[in-house]
Design goal:
The complex is a heterodimer.
Chain A lengths: L1 H10 L2 H9 L3 H27 L1 H8 L5 H32 L2 H19 L5 H4 L2 H29 L7 H30 L1 H6 L4 H18 L5 H8 L7 H7 L1 H36 L4 H15 L1 H13 L1 H27 L12 E8 L7 E10 L5 E10 L11 E7 L2 H22 L2 H6 L7 H17 L2 H14 L11 H17 L10
Antiparallel strand pairs in A: 1-2, 2-3, 3-4
Helix pairs in contact in A: 1-2, 1-12, 3-6, 3-8, 3-9, 3-11, 5-6, 5-8, 5-20, 6-8, 6-11, 8-9, 8-20, 9-15, 9-16, 13-14, 14-15, 14-17, 14-18, 14-20, 14-21, 14-22, 15-18, 16-17, 16-18, 17-18, 17-22
Chain B lengths: L1 H35 L3 H30 L7
Helix pairs in contact in B: 1-2
The chains are: A alpha+beta, B mainly alpha.
Chain lengths: 530, 76
């Protein structure tokens, strides 16, 4: 087979290349997709489990009353999520273009699994002091590096196994993995919580989702171990056509660099902000800006993911018929035009501003008890319960520490509010989140095939990984933080539509991306055999 | 169409400069200053805005604008 591959590359004979590359049954390709997708999904799971458990991790490893620990906490969330991923893309992309796709994404799998498992084993701040946040930060950075290397490898590997006319369809399975990883992380947390109870989970049970990872990684490793190298890369390597410095060939060569820029500004940047708007901003908007109960929001997200995920494959398949560019750009345009009405409707359904309160159902309870740490002080808890005509229920718990020492500055009260929505509003919100997931599937479903088709085999892993992780990790990953900043600034300035101001960030970024994509992306060349 | 592609290069250059100005003055510096005043989350966010996101947006738009103006993305 290798001799045939070398001959096929040297002779530039299309039919021989086809046979060399695709002389496999559909079952073999399905095995490739299965093994690649499961591993990538587990890596996303590992990455998101940290974000989903951030409040507990912060409590155990980064005490907020210690400014340095709080700084490390924010650094762990931001740096690993956004900044380190492109470095992982460069490091592992280079390896993947020199050593091979298979060995490289096996390494990222083990690195991610090991780091995730170890986060679940690190003793808390109370046991080992400052070593705890430092170790967690290092492990989180390793997670970011591994993720930066994984996606490009998996997408390239699958694409290089797929026939040209079905490349969009087959690679779209890889595109489902990010959503499925987030979905699985929410599911494992919900199951562990319900099995152990809130207190046990908070004490030690939060470690289980991290430990589960090693089991999943082990299974994925066994499946991936027996896979063969990508036939296209094997042929390129056997013919001695790999490059010794893929970084220089990708970014130092003007001809290739202009395509890297185009991939970033005309595709991945817009895709990144749309992905994070649908998956993360919708969630934080409902929890923080509208005050909906956190568990109820997670259930809404889970349903929206269940309904939305099949559309990744549908749009991947459709991109084989009509092209990648029209679907991705249509997704961006519809998202840009729909975000304001969608978020306006979400706010109307989720916030209590338009609800009518049932006067006789309001209940206020005040509880006073001695503080556990200092019994001379007392803790005053005020619980407010309100009900609304549409069936929504509002609960507020206000906790105030009253010091026996009157000369001491009183601490601000801790306020926790949550609104439980009725079934009608719940399902209407699921529909609105689902629509946003639909936009994500349009821009994200075909993008692996699109990126793979932009770059030649010898530098494909490096060249496609960097724009993907800058677009997705940095432009997209910063979306919730920038949007929240815009909304809170508008609220402080007295803007009545403050809750809509955060949406400007994805609209502007996706708008620029749409124009660049429309003007400069050709999208007709789907040949990767170069 | 190639003419439009080239002329749009001016737009990308202008957009790069405007994006740099606004992301420094409207988000980056206020967050950075609030971070220096004691808010650690703001400090990290400010550093990321000033030293990562802004250079990325500005740099990529300026290079892209220059490339488009010089006809690098023209089609035959």
């Amino acid at each position: 087979m290798t001799i045939l591959c070398i001959y096929a590359v040297k002779s530039n004979c299309f039919s021989l290349k086809l046979f060399a590359m695709f002389g496999r049954s559909n079952a073999a390709i399905r095995k490739v997709i299965g093994a690649s997708s499961v591993g990538t999904m587990i890596e996303w799971y590992d990455f998101y489990i940290f974000g989903s458990l951030a409040p507990i991790i912060s409590m155990k490893f980064f005490p907020q009353d210690n400014p340095t620990a709080a700084f490390l906490s924010t650094l762990a969330t931001f740096a690993a999520g956004f900044v380190v991923r492109p470095f992982g893309a460069l490091f592992f992309g280079r390896l993947g273009d020199i050593v091979g796709r298979k060995h490289t994404f096996m390494m990222t799998l083990l690195l991610m699994g090991g780091a995730t498992f170890l986060i679940g084993c690190v003793p808390g701040y109370e046991t080992i002091g400052f070593m705890a946040p430092i170790l967690v930060l290092i492990l989180r950075l390793l997670q970011g590096l591994a993720l930066g290397g994984e996606y490009g490898g998996a997408a390239t590997y699958v694409a290089e196994h797929s026939p040209a006319e079905r490349r969009g369809y087959w690679t779209s399975w890889i595109q489902t993995t990010a959503t499925l990883g987030l979905f699985t992380s929410l599911l494992v947390i919900m199951l562990t919580k319900s099995a152990l109870g809130e207190k046990e989970f908070s004490d030690w049970g939060w470690r289980i989702p991290f430990w589960v990872s090693i089991l999943m990684i082990g299974i994925s490793y066994l499946i991936r171990r027996n896979m063969k190298e990508s036939p296209m890369f094997a042929a390129t390597k056997a013919a001695g056509e790999t490059v010794s410095n893929p970084l220089a060939a990708s970014f130092g060569n003007k001809y290739n660099f202009k395509y890297v820029l185009l991939a970033l500004l005309g595709a991945t940047m817009g895709q990144g902000v749309i992905w994070y708007t649908g998956h993360y901003y919708a969630m934080s908007f409902l929890k923080t800006d509208c005050g909906v109960d956190a568990l109820q929001v997670e259930k809404m997200m889970t349903w929206a993911f269940v309904f939305g995920t099949p559309f990744f494959v549908l749009f991947g398949w459709l991109s084989d018929k009509v092209g990648r560019k029209p679907i991705m750009l249509a997704g961006m345009l519809i998202a840009i035009l729909s975000y304001f009405p969608i978020y306006q409707a979400m706010y109307g359904l989720a916030s209590n501003t338009q609800r009518i309160e049932i006067a006789g159902k309001t209940d206020v309870q005040v509880l006073r008890k001695a503080d556990e740490k200092n019994p001379a002080d007392s803790v005053i808890t005020t619980i407010t319960h309100k009900e609304f005509t549409d069936g929504a229920v509002f609960n507020e718990t206000q906790t105030l520490l009253k010091s026996a020492d009157t000369t001491r500055e009183p601490l601000p009260a801790k306020i926790k509010t949550a609104t439980l929505l009725p079934a009608t509003a719940f399902w209407q919100l699921v529909l609105l989140i689902f629509i946003q997931i639909l936009f994500v599937t349009m821009v994200y479903g075909p993008i692996a095939a699109f990126l793979v088709e932009m770059f030649p085999t010898k530098i494909r892993y490096t060249s496609m990984s960097l724009p993907y992780h800058i677009g997705n990790g940095i432009f997209g990953g910063l979306m919730p933080a920038v949007a929240t900043y815009l909304a809170t600034t508008a609220k402080a300035g007295g803007n009545p539509d403050w809750f809509l101001q955060g949406i400007w960030y994805p609209i502007i970024i996706a708008g620029v991306c749409f124009l660049i994509g429309l003007l400069y992306i050709d999208g007709r060349d789907n040949n990767i055999d170069d | 169409m190639n003419k439009i592609r080239r002329i749009a290069g001016i737009l990308w250059l202008a957009m790069g400069a405007a994006a740099g100005y606004f992301s420094i003055t409207s988000i980056g510096l206020p967050k950075f200053n609030s971070g220096l005043a004691g808010n650690q989350s703001d400090l990290v966010f400010g550093i990321i805005m000033l030293f990562i996101l802004t250079p990325l947006i500005v740099g990529s738009l300026l290079i892209f604008g220059y490339y488009t103006l010089s006809g690098e993305y023209d089609r035959e």
